[in-house]
Specification:
The chain contains twelve helices and 14 strands. It has about 350 residues and is an alpha/beta fold. The protein folds into two domains: about 200 residues, Rossmann fold (3-Layer(aba) Sandwich), CATH 3.40.50; about 120 residues, 3-Layer(aba) Sandwich (Rossmann fold), CATH 3.40.50.920. A seven-stranded mixed sheet has the order 3-2-4-5-7-6-12, with helices on both faces. The chain has a five-stranded mixed sheet with strand order 9-11-10-13-14, sandwiched between helices. A two-stranded antiparallel ribbon has the order 1-8. The longest helix is centred in the first third of the chain and has 15 residues.
């Protein structure tokens, strides 16, 4: 075991995969010689050569289109889109080609493609470096959507994603690349440690997609989160002095319905927290699942704490971002209902 931050854990996952599978190919803008803007692919080109880790032109559509062709011909491309905000030019390739290939070919072809991309705010990135577009992909049949919240999960989930024979969109919460964040903009930086999931095996392991993690058991309320919001929820529950059960989804598709439903039936209250905008955010799907399966158990309406329905603001980032205080205040209000 070694203490790693998320960047180091993801880099380790790449090395394990490239050593284990000669058909794993890594590429993207600056992903080769430079090692990626966040250093996730650092050193891979030097170790595995330019044919297996290389730079791509500034064309997200071209990156994904080429990767789909590789995947259909027995390679396992692991590509990087530099920021999730840049993934939109590749959306047609992902939705109309990658996600449909198995179905269109009646199983003759599969698309074992993994697309990594940093997402989310809290880094003063402004409108084009802070977006959370995960719900756009959860609507697409044929895709799997993964979002880790700590280094241990990041490595295990990435290895499992690349081993899948269907396309995976792997969102990386860049706000916690180097350490967890409690949702207080004035809090000092914190490094990953073993308690927070920074203890990571250096060799091969996987985490099954579709299995949520109960980060903390509790009896008062269920908080459903993923990515950076896992740590914000923990800090908020402690600040509000509420015995919350915190569920880290880890994968949005496939979704662990059983863990969600069993928890809400137990606590009888639920709040969902994500950075993406409210309208048509993934929290709406979660709320619908809970309403259908847990309605007669609920003591209060399901609530959502999210970003606002506006473009991500640079000057008012902390008015947009679900902070520890905003989550804590909502938890207190819900506990007073019913």
């Amino acid at each position: 075991m070694a203490i790693m931050n998320m960047v180091e854990a993801l880099n380790s996952a790449h090395r394990v995969l490239m050593e284990k599978y000669p058909n794993v190919i890594v590429f993207g803008q600056d992903a080769g010689y430079f090692g990626g803007v966040f250093n996730v692919t650092e050193g891979l080109q030097k170790e595995f050569g330019k044919q297996r880790c290389f730079d791509a032109p500034i064309s997200e559509c071209g990156i994904v289109g080429a990767a789909i062709g590789m995947a259909a011909n027995d390679l396992r491309p692991l590509v990087e889109i530099q920021f999730a905000d840049y993934i939109y030019p590749a959306y047609d390739q992902i939705v109309s080609e990658a996600a449909r290939l198995r179905f269109r070919s009646a199983g003759m072809f599969t698309c074992p493609l993994t697309i990594r991309t940093p997402y989310g705010g809290g880094v003063k990135g402004g409108q084009t470096h802070s977006q959370s577009p995960e719900s756009l992909f959860t609507h697409v049949s044929g895709l799997q959507v993964v979002i880790p919240s700590n280094p241990y999960d990041a490595k295990g989930l990435l290895i499992a994603s690349v081993e899948k024979n269907d396309p995976v969109i792997f969102f990386e919460p860049k706000r916690i690349y180097n350490g967890p964040f409690n949702g207080d903009p004035h809090s000092p930086a914190v490094s990953w440690d073993s308690h927070r999931g920074g203890e990571v095996p250096e060799d091969y392991y996987t985490i099954e997609l579709g299995k949520a993690n109960i980060v903390k058991e509790g009896s008062d309320i269920t908080i459903i989160v993923y990515g950076t919001m896992v740590h914000v929820a923990e800090a908020a529950a402690e600040a509000a002095d509420i015995d919350a059960e915190i569920i880290d989804l880890r994968t949005l598709l496939p979704l662990d319905n059983d863990t969600i439903i069993n928890s809400v039936k137990k606590t009888k209250r639920c709040v969902i927290v994500h950075e993406a905008t409210l309208t048509s955010g993934f929290g709406a799907e979660l709320a619908a699942i809970i309403q259908k399966n847990c309605f007669w158990h609920l003591k209060a309406p399901v609530d959502r704490i999210t970003g606002w329905d506006v473009p991500y603001p640079l000057s008012f980032e902390w008015d947009y971002f679900p902070t520890k205080q905003r989550v804590a205040d909502t938890l207190k209000n819900i506990m007073q209902e019913g």
